[in-house]
Amino acid sequence: METGYRLRQQGAVIPRDIISRFTCAYNGDEEVFRAELFPAISANPFIAFSTLATESGELVFSWIDAMVRFRARSVKITVE
User: Fold this and answer.
1) Checking CA distances to 20, which of 57, 66, 72, 80 falls within 20 to 30 Å?
2) Are 26 and 55 in contact (CB under 8 A)?
3) Could you tell me the pTM of the whole model?
4) What is the per-residue burial (b if ≥16 Cβ within 10 Å, else e) of 50-76?
5) How far is CA 60 from CA 11, 16, 28, 53, 77, in A?
6) Burial label, 1 (beta-carbon count in 10 A; 0-12, 13-18, 19+)
7) Other C-beta atoms lying within 10 Å of the C-beta of residue 7
8) With 90 as the cut, is the pLDDT of residue 6 above it?
9) What pLDDT sits at residue 46?
10) Please, what's the b/e burial string for 17-46 (b: 16 or more CB within 10 A of its CB; e: otherwise)?
11) Over 80: is that where the pLDDT of 2 sits?
């Protein structure tokens, strides 16, 4: 997350880039966590949550920033 106040080494302002929503889905469709974030929260927020996995599958972490850009990362989990 960037506030828009920091400068690069050359002196140019780093554009504001703030996450507005973060979600985690289990096996593609079941949302297990959601957070709405606002500029006053933190420059680098730490998000922690727990969930119960009943079967192997995939957790998909996705977020949208203030410029409405969507990003996602996923991780496969194995339940034995």
Assistant:
1) 57
2) no
3) 0.76
4) eeeeeeebebbeebbbeeeeeeeeeee
5) 37, 25, 7, 13, 11
6) middle
7) 9
8) no
9) 86
10) ebbeebbbbbeeeeeebeeebeeeeeeeee
11) no
CA-CA-CA-CA dihedral for 61, 37, 45, 79, to nearest 10: -30
Q: Are 58 and 28 in contact (CB under 8 A)?
A: yes
- The per-residue pLDDT for range 41-58, each reduced to its tens digit, is 666 788 899 999 889 999
**Structural domains present in the chain:** 20-77 (2.60.40.10)
Residue type, 68: V
- Range list of β-strands (E), the chain: 19-26, 30-36, 57-65, 70-77
- Six-digit token string for 22: 């973060």
